[in-house]
Amino acid sequence: MDIFSIITLVGGLAFFLYGMTIMSSGLEKIAGGKMEHLLRKVASNKLLSLVLGAGITIAIQSSSALTVMLVGLVNSGILSFGQTIGVLMGSNIGTTLTAWILSLAGLESSNLFLNLLKPKNFAPIFALAGVIMIMSGKTQKRKSIGNIAVGFAVLMYGMTLMSDTMAPLADIPEFSGLMTAFKNPILALLFGAVFTGIIQSSAASVGILQALSLTGEITYGIAVPIIMGQNIGTCVTALISSIGVSKNAKKVSVVHLSFNIIGTMVCLIPFLLVEAIAAPAFIDQPINALMIAVCHSIFNVITTFVLLPFTKQLEKLANFIIRDKENVSQPETNETVLLDDRLLTMPAFAVAKAISVSNEMAMAAQKSVCDATGLFTVWNEKTAADVDKMEDDIDHYEDILGTYLVKLSHTELSDADHRQVARMLHTINDLERLGDHAKNLIGVAEEIHNKGITFSPQAVAELKTLTEALHEILSLTVRSFVTKDLALAATVEPLEQVIDNLITEIKGRHILRLQHGNCTIELGFILTDLLTNYERISDHCSNIAVAIIEAEHDTYEAHTYLHNIKAEESGGYHDQFESYRKQFALEPKS
To answer: 327 lies in a domain?
Structure first.
């Protein structure tokens, strides 16, 4: 084995880890925000959370990623750490799937179909399909699926490189001597834990062990303790992610570590006793990739179902290790937490901080829509990506604000602060929906760009007028929200009605152009999507403005309020309506 073999081995490991990262990232994008919703829904049920934990880990191909996500959910107050224990146990079962897939590398058969199951044979097919989907994909979902396929192919290529490089190790005396050292189960367990902790992936660590098994030097007696150690080593990622978070979030990583350490003791002690007393012959026999996957699964299933009845005890153990103290000399910090629960002891400060964060959310929502509408004139990939990122940020704002404001509403608040909390609670969902519609508009703009579609000059002029009205209603809404200006908020509803009328008129004009052969059905579908999003954006602006006004009067009868102002025969609403109608009038039909 020369320097080039070592380079190939390291390169194979790099490909393996990179492929797993790409694949996991793509799978997470496909899953979207559904995972958090499901977690919140079933986390209180022990068996359902176990199944869900296994399912999510299979979906994202990373128990470490799931554990980190649970730390974040607990840190933001969405889940209690006790609710995560069943999910953590399930993740240990879900992570065994990768080993089963990698075990296919050991298949030996002359049968064509069985040969196609070997990773080195089907990986190129996945790579080709993935690249085609990435290059030709019109939607983010299609591209994410392509990334999954390419990531899987790269992972398998890395596995093949490692396997091919490790096979000659069997002829090297020094390697045999090293394997002899690992016949000590404690040393083997520590090696599995340390190595997995370094690369921070039990799936990758098991894959490397499977590659090593092709040398014929890895016995059952060596492999089983290493597998147990790998489960302990995978806890490193969660431990790192718990630095600087709340105590409850720290407890998630403590439970994860405790579960794996206790599970290892439960399985290792009987294994050592059987080895010492019975000395079964298979202990010193070489293990193959398939049996490594079997042992990995058996260990995790036994550990999970032995400890599942003791979730309360694991919770108590975490509480004992991470004790809550009333006086903390050094406050915890976590830059990802925008709203600190410790401010709840000072409600006035907490309300001020929540207002600041909600204002940031409102301005981000306005910018995302305005940037998205600009893409209809000039398509720009970076702007589209920025809007997509803003939509994720807005979703995050809604999550943390919703949780925080509910907590804040249960504290002692002045009347003024109570109205501010109510105002934010009644508007953050509408602000989040603005971000969703901005993302929808990106899809419409991208379709127009990719298909080279061009609207008629009349349609372009009409959409320009409508877009100006939309920008105006967004500006009025966000300014009234940030400044809490009731008079400004009252001007939103008349403009919303003008926008509704504009949309109706534009649709009518499109039908006339269609009848005269001046437009196409395809353009009609795109125009309908665009107008639908515009209409809903203006509706959400109306909802926000009404909530601002109603919060000040501590009454929440939106329909009654809107009916009353529209029923008035004279007054501000009708004057504003007429003013906006003239300002945003469409050019006469040609």
So the answer is: no
- Say how far residue 559 (Cα) sits from the centre of its chain: 36
What's the confidence (pLDDT) of residue 169?
A: 60
Segment 284-342, tens digit of pLDDT: 888 888 888 888 889 889 888 888 888 888 888 888 888 765 444 333 433 335 676 65
What pLDDT, on a 0 to 100 scale, did the predictor assign at position 331? 37
Backbone angles phi, psi at 453, to 5 degrees: -80, 140
Structural domain span for residue 380: 337-452
Q: Kindly state whether residues 571 and 486 are assigned to the same domain.
A: yes
Helices (H) and strands (E) in the chain, counts: 27, 0
Residues 428 and 539 in one domain: no
Length of the chain: 590
Query: Where a domain ends, among 297, 321, 345?
Result: 321
On the 0-12 / 13-18 / 19+ scale of CB atoms within 10 A, 498 is buried
User: At residue 587, does pLDDT exceed 50?
Assistant: yes
Residues pairing with 219 in the sheet = 286
Give the other-Cβ count within 10 Å of 106's Cβ. 18
| Same domain flag for 286 and 180 | yes
Amino acid letter at 48?
L
Which residue has tokens 């970076």?
A: 382
The verdict on 36 and 94 lying in the same domain is yes
Residues 446 and 463 in one domain: no
Residue 418 CB-density burial (10 A; 0-12 exposed, 13-18 middle, 19+ buried): middle
Burial of residue 122 (CB within 10 Å: 0-12, 13-18, 19+) is middle
